[in-house]
């Protein structure tokens, strides 16, 4: 199906327990991924391998509660080194860890609810610190092994913009961005936590040692982002404030920042919170990419961007084309206007898959899976023509469709820029789990709401943007 869609890159994650445990090889599992990589390349696509997408041996949970313990760091590095040695000659684009900032907040809270953890077992800041050290040591192992490819890390990026131009609101937005995403990104780029994080949460974090700072600084070739929607931040009096957004996805971060009121941009559809993931708001990718580029000046991979079908579109998913047209066009415009180096773009997801908090009720797939009829047959959706046209013409087509859901806030002025005539200087790709970039002036936007979510590690699809332009009049 990925080949039929004309996709150029296939993002997938490898299952740790399936291939290697404590020095022991699982030959059948190892061969499975050799076969998969060969099939991807034989189908004209480039493999993008993610080493870890929330999937580690149960033993490490039983013994020391996984990423809550620093004991997880050497375990992961041993596994990563094994994978590099096994597949390094076949793959040249790698992600070590997917969404540490999501994992450390989302999963532990669910483990408490399920009775697997006690509240005192959880420390989201130590958890994220362990992820940073595991990534950095794996990055060094990759380079020391002489691997020729590029390797990075992916975070969930729910970029917050200030509710007003008041300095207090601007500070609240930057504080959230640095605590939620910068807590992982700043260490691996500049070698330390963001100063604002140390100023506000010095009692929560464990500072890196001098040796650790040397290890983590510059330990990434690119930064990967999973982008779906934006946040809005405003400054509140800590003595009178009540949380606006509390939930497994990021509740603890909000609780620890009583001075910052955080909410989903466009508001929340209380009656249907799953609609957070089918709102068309392309400014979210523009703002997120610009914040990341201006902050770190590292090449970017959009590792996830997509629309969750909470309206039961099924195969008649023309709206998915509208979404990806809007997001991809906005991404291209942003790349051209600000000379942003975007390597790849990945659409979440290739096939309709199981979503942690929504089961099969919020399909993101470009390919339909027959769950209702129980045949599990795969078939292309109507939106497939959008991807096929991109592959054939090297143009992101303008796709418009009346949106009947409650409109969100007006698009910001920056969303109406004209398209540059020159092609972007960098290339980009599309992969299974990911989001898409939008057109500069989307016709309408749909309602937004908050809900918890998690994405299953299924294959991905890539689209190179190097020679792309937007098919729209100036």
Provide an overview of this structure:
Residues 401-448 are annotated as: Disordered. Belongs to the glycosyl hydrolase 1 family. The active site is at residue 304. By secondary structure, the protein is an alpha/beta fold. The chain has helices spanning 16-19, 27-42, 58-64, 72-87, 100-113, 124-144, 167-190, 195-200, 210-216, 251-255, 283-296, 318-338, 384-393, and strands at residues 9-13, 20-21, 24-25, 46-52, 93-98, 150-156, 160-162, 222-226, 231-235, 260-264, 300-304, 342-347, 367-369, 378-380, 395-397, 461-462, 469-471. The strands form 5 sheets. It has an 8-stranded mixed β-sheet. α12 (318-338) links the parallel β11 and β12. The longest helix has 24 residues, at 167-190. It is globular and about 55 Å long. The two termini are 34 Å apart.
């Amino acid at each position: 199906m990925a080949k039929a869609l004309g996709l150029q890159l296939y993002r997938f994650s490898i299952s740790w327990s399936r291939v290697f445990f404590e020095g022991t090889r699982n030959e059948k599992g190892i061969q499975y991924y050799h076969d998969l990589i060969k099939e991807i390349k034989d189908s004209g696509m480039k493999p993008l391998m993610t080493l870890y997408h929330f999937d580690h041996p149960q033993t490490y949970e039983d013994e020391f509660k996984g990423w809550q313990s620093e004991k997880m760091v050497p375990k992961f590095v041993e596994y990563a080194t094994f994978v590099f040695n096994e597949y390094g000659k076949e793959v040249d684009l790698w992600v070590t860890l997917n969404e540490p900032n999501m994992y450390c907040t989302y999963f532990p809270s669910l483990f408490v609810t399920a009775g697997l953890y006690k509240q005192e077992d959880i420390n989201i800041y130590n958890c994220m610190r362990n992820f940073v050290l595991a990534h950095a040591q794996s990055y060094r192992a990759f380079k020391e092994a002489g691997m020729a490819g590029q390797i990075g890390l992916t975070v969930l990026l729910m970029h917050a913009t200030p509710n007003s131009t008041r300095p207090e609101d601007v500070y609240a937005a930057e504080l959230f961005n640095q605590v939620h995403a910068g807590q992982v990104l700043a260490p691996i780029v500049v070698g330390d936590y963001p100063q604002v994080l140390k100023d506000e949460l010095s009692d929560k974090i464990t500072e890196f040692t001098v040796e650790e700072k040397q290890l983590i600084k510059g330990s990434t070739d690119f930064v990967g982002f999973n982008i779906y929607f934006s946040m809005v931040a405003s400054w509140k009096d800590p003595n009178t404030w009540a949380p606006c957004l509390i939930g497994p996805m990021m509740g603890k971060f909000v609780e620890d920042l009583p001075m910052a009121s955080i909410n989903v941009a466009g508001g929340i559809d209380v009656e249907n919170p799953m609609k957070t993931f089918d709102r068309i708001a392309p400014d979210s990718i523009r703002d997120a990419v610009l914040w990341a580029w201006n902050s770190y000046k590292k090449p970017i991979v959009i590792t996830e961007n997509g629309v969750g079908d909470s309206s039961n579109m099924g195969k008649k998913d023309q709206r998915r084309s509208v979404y990806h047209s809007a997001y991809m066009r906005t991404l291209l415009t942003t790349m051209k206007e600000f000379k942003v180096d975007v390597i790849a773009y990945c659409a979440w997801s290739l096939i309709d898959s199981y979503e942690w908090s929504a089961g099969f009720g919020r399909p993101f797939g470009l390919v339909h899976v027959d769950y209702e009829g129980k045949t599990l047959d795969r078939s292309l959706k109507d939106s497939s023509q959008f991807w096929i046209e991109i592959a054939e013409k090297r143009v992101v087509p303008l796709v418009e469709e009346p949106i009947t859901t409650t409109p969100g806030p007006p698009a910001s002025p920056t969303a109406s820029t004209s398209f540059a005539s020159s092609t972007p200087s960098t290339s980009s790709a599309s992969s299974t789990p990911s989001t898409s970039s939008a057109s500069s002036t989307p016709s309408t936007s749909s309602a937004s709401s908050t809900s918890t979510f998690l994405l299953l590690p299924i294959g991905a699809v890539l689209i190179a943007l190097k020679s792309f332009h937007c098919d729209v009049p100036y």
